[in-house]
From TrEMBL:
Name this polypeptide is given: ATP-dependent DNA helicase RecG
One Pfam family this sequence matches: Helicase_C
Helicase C-terminal domain boundaries: 463-628
Organism listed in the record: Kaistella carnis
SUPFAM superfamilies the record matches: Nucleic acid-binding proteins, P-loop containing nucleoside triphosphate hydrolases
Matching InterPro entries: ATP-dep_DNA_helicase_RecG (IPR004609), DEAD/DEAH_box_helicase_dom (IPR011545), Helicase_ATP-bd (IPR014001), Helicase_C-like (IPR001650), NA-bd_OB-fold (IPR012340), P-loop_NTPase (IPR027417), RecG/Mfd (IPR047112), RecG_dom3_C (IPR045562)
CDD domains in the cross-refs: DEXHc_RecG, RecG_wedge_OBF
Keywords annotated in UniProt: ATP-binding, DNA damage, DNA recombination, DNA repair, DNA-binding, Helicase, Hydrolase, Isomerase, Nucleotide-binding
Superkingdom of the organism of origin: Bacteria
Enzymatic class: isomerase
Family matches, as SMART domains: DEXDc, HELICc
């Protein structure tokens, strides 16, 4: 038997079953089976009490007591079953045998202290156990190992592929472990981290003697997953740093300095300064920058982006900045243009709705080098958009763009441009450590001074009148208000109708004020006009769907009312809330929900009320939804670990990451003899798998 052996050749499988197992579980080789880990274990070392039993389907437990009242009961067409009572000092349980022999019946020890083991059935609160395993010897009953329970299904059981089957197969495979696998971590690492050996861990993850042995096995298995995952990213990052040529930007010149001295209307925060320095250090090198800029909403990423583009310009290079929506691109354009008002620097906007004549000018100016900064949507990716010398590409709101799209930016210059990816969606640290392992990460963890934290409240629909009145008072103080309504794709028409109805209510209540509306069905020009109407301060109220979610910047808006807030996810709520609190005034976010809320919804509302910290919110979000959902389906495969849990195994991930960094620092090419096993394993395991090259 080797790891590559097809399961067809294992005892008790054969071609038919092998095919079936492959279809249902995707298992084809011995190796696949080895990492088909138990879902849970039954602890036979534990004795339950009848009085403590709860309705818990599938629970297999051990009880200690005495059997009595054994009798044969006739039922159906001449069929018989055997029943008995089982008592401990807390209660009584029915035992039943549907199949039994006379011999077996006589073997059942009556009125003796014994142990029974089996699955508890709950019939209307009456517990029973069918076909219990009986053990008289206390030592045997209690010295049992933890019994592995494999993830099975009815489909499998029907074919006789039940838990017993999996136990038998795995028992055979694990017996051969010493011939099957080799250690894949270095001795020093194992020693340093007090890990158990690989063979022991694989044996004990299937058949642990007790909880202690299981925990050590699990720790080792999880560490291995985290370690080799990080190693993949680490090697890729290292490769990038040594072989991805980029244009060095050695100097900071007049464009940057003049702007910095004369045009910035505020002092940069320390975090902005630090991040800028990190970017500057990267761009100085003749290596392509590949950096992620994380910063909560309103932390001032745009300014960092602009300053970076000015450094590119000082070195004779063009820049482009790409946003996921037309509105956002327009806003970036408007704010950058305003900031650059007193300079000679040329900026243009390119989106899907840019007129042909304007496009022509853009194309020409890009090629001649006259245009220094291009801001736009994915329209900038089109092949016809060519630069004279693109030196820096900035992508705002990273999670909306696919990898393939980003890769197209690279191709726009002979030497690929430096890449700065900006995201306002903070993600949990464990996720960032895994998901962004091949990017350098900069974090703006500080908001500009003078920002007042947004006050968030959770209200019910019946409070609506009070909320409306409150908003009116704010308008009278000169503020502007957002009303946001959810939009769910499946019932877009309904939602749209709902939005219009609400719009009418608002018009009625706020008679005499200007109300504007923004939703996904509007044409780009209409959207822009509506946005403009609100941004200019002419409209007091903006009624919108989540179109406004990302990036919209109207500092005078101070109240965000989110209707049916329970229909939004946490990160979405946080993004929406980020549309207020952008000016000097106290801002408010009011989450309106119905009375009946699921416990998850309650947690979401409470989290929003309790904190403004996007990173904290993302942690809760991950606990509620799991890591896959946070990254989106497109990327969920990336966090597809067998044992490792990104929600709870933060420490293991941290240690694995540090271990990989240490390893690559001391032995970048994995050439030391002590890393031989590690290198061999990695090469074998990951050859041809391109999972690691997901991020540009
Ligand atoms: P985000 O990080 O969400 O993209 P923006 O770049 O839109 O944030 O900045 C939010 C607001 O804060 C803008 O109005 C911007 O001009 C302002 N701003 C940025 N940096 C500072 C700063 N250091 N001090 C004061 N205001 C700032
Ligand atoms: Mg922004």
């Amino acid at each position: 038997m080797t790891l590559e052996t097809s399961i067809e050749f294992l005892k008790g499988i054969g071609p038919e079953r092998a095919k079936f197992i492959k279809n249902v579980l995707g298992i084809t080789t011995v190796e696949d089976f080895l990492t088909f880990y138990p879902l849970r274990y039954i602890d036979k070392s534990k004795i339950y009490k009848i009085g403590d039993l709860r309705a818990e389907p599938e629970a297999e437990i051990q009880l200690k007591g005495k059997i009595s009242d054994i009798q044969e009961v006739a039922y159906g067409k001449g069929q018989k079953r055997l029943t008995a009572k089982f008592r401990d000092d807390t209660g009584t349980l029915d035992l039943v045998w549907f199949r039994y022999s006379k011999w077996m019946k006589e073997q059942i020890p009556l009125n003796l202290p014994i142990f029974i083991f089996g699955k508890i059935n709950d019939f209307n609160g009456i517990f029973s156990m069918a076909h219990p395993e009986i053990e008289v010897d206390e030592k045997k009953a209690l010295s049992g190992t933890l019994l592995p329970i494999y993830p099975g299904s009815e489909k499998l059981s029907k074919r006789g592929l039940n838990n017993k089957f999996f136990q038998t197969v795995l028992a055979e495979i694990t017996r051969n472990l010493p011939n099957l696998v080799e250690e894949n971590l270095s001795d020093s690492l194992i020693k340093k981290l007090k890990l158990i050996g690989r063979i022991t861990s694989l044996y004990n993850i299937h058949f642990p003697k007790d909880l202690h042995h299981f925990e050590h096995a699990e720790k080792r298995v999880k560490f291995e997953e985290a370690f080799f995952f990080q190693l993949g990213y680490g090697l890729k990052k290292q490769h990038h740093k040594t072989s991805a040529v980029g244009n060095p930007f050695p100097k900071v010149g007049d464009h940057f300095n003049n702007f910095y001295k004369h045009c910035i209307p505020f002092e940069l925060t320390n975090a902005q300064k630090r991040v800028l320095k990190e970017i500057r250090t990267d761009m100085k090198k003749p290596i392509q920058m590949n950096r992620l800029l994380q910063g909560d909403v309103g932390s001032g990423k745009t300014m960092v982006a602009l300053l970076s583009m000015l450094i590119a310009l000082d070195n004779g290079f063009q820049s482009c900045m790409m946003a996921p929506t037309e509105i956002l691109a327009q806003q970036h354009f408007a704010s950058v243009q305003e900031l650059l008002e007193n300079t000679e620097i040329k900026v243009r906007l390119l989106t899907g709705s840019t007129k042909t004549s304007e496009r022509k000018i853009i194309h020409e100016e890009l090629l001649s080098g006259e245009l220094s900064i291009l801001i736009g949507t994915h329209a900038v990716l089109e092949d016809i958009v060519q630069f004279k010398n693109l030196g820096l590409a900035i992508i705002d709101e990273q999670h909306r763009f696919g990898v393939a799209q980003r890769a197209r930016l690279w191709a726009k210059n002979k030497i690929p441009p430096h890449i700065l990816v900006m995201t306002a969606t903070p993600i949990p640290r464990t996720l960032a450590m895994s998901f962004y392992s091949d990017l350098d990460v900069s974090v703006i963890d500080e908001l500009p001074v003078g920002r007042k934290p947004i006050i968030t409240a959770h209200r019910r629909e019946k409070d609506r009148l009070t909320i409306f009145r409150f908003a009116k008072e704010e308008i009278e103080k000169g503020r502007q208000i957002y009303f946001v309504y959810p939009l769910i794709e499946e019932s877009e028409t309904l939602d749209y109708k709902n939005l219009l109805e609400n719009f009418d209510h608002i018009l009625e209540f706020y008679e005499g004020y200007n109300v504007t509306m923004l939703h996904g069905r509007m044409k780009p020009a209409e959207k822009e006009a509506a946005m403009q109407y609100f941004a200019s301060g002419k409209a007091h109220i903006m009624v919108a769907t989540t179109v406004i979610e990302v990036g919209v910047n109207v500092p005078n808006a101070s109240v965000m009312i989110i209707e049916s807030a329970e229909r939004f996810g946490l990160s979405q709520l946080h993004q929406l809330r980020g549309r207020v609190g952008r000016g000097a005034e106290q801002s408010y976010c009011i989450l309106v929900t119905s009375d009946k809320l699921s416990s998850d919804s309650r947690t979401r509302m409470k989290t929003m009320v309790d904190t403004n910290d996007g990173f904290k919110i993302s942690e809760v979000d991950m606990q509620l939804r799991g890591p896959g959902d946070i990254l989106g389906t497109q990327q969920s495969g990336v966090v597809d670990f067998k044992k490792l849990n990104l929600v709870t195994d933060g420490n293991i991930i941290k240690v694995a990451k540090a271990s990989v960094e240490h390893l690559l620092k001391n032995d970048p090419n994995l050439e030391h003899p002590e890393n031989f096993q590690l290198r061999t394993y990695y090469a074998k395991q990951y050859k041809g798998k391109n999972k690691w090259s997901r991020i540009s």
